[in-house]
Amino acid sequence: MGRKRFRLAWISLLVLLILTACSGGANSESAVETEPKTQVEVDHPTEADEQQPVTTFSSEPVELLVATPWGEEYFNSRISDVMREKLPHIQVTHVDWNGTIEQMQEHNASQIVPDIVLAFTGQAPLEELEMVFPLDEKIKEYGVDLSTIDPAIIAQVRSRDKQGRLIGIPQEMGVIGHYWPSLQ
Questions:
Q1: Does the residue 33 lie in any domain?
Q2: pLDDT at 123
Q3: How many folded domains does the chain comprise?
């Protein structure tokens, strides 16, 4: 039961971040460059940061395209069915992706541009296609509370990005251990 709640919590957080990523459009105005914040500044906002009004999530119907290698049946059991139950205004649609640049280019050429990508082959293909979207500003804008996530997980995700940006939230984290029985 605890694992199920843990997974639902991660999926809910993922949904919040999905909504954040999909709600913003490209801004044609030039962005004002600011100095990057340190990890401490990001994890511990200042009073000025906390007083800024936060944007609320929309309850308008939306479709999200999610690229995974899982196949539709497994995708539905892990994500779509849970989303339909918890957030019925969000329709998640599976996009089959084998992790290659070529297949993602084919999807993009066919006007299939995933909103969320399970980067199981690493971030490099998405970087090459300029499909990496940092979440730091959106997390701040929407007041997403990252304090419920183990800081080591956030640090690990940031370490994948050359600029230290938060470029995703894992749906789950596993701990892998090896056991070698003594040889006698």
A1: no
A2: 86
A3: 2
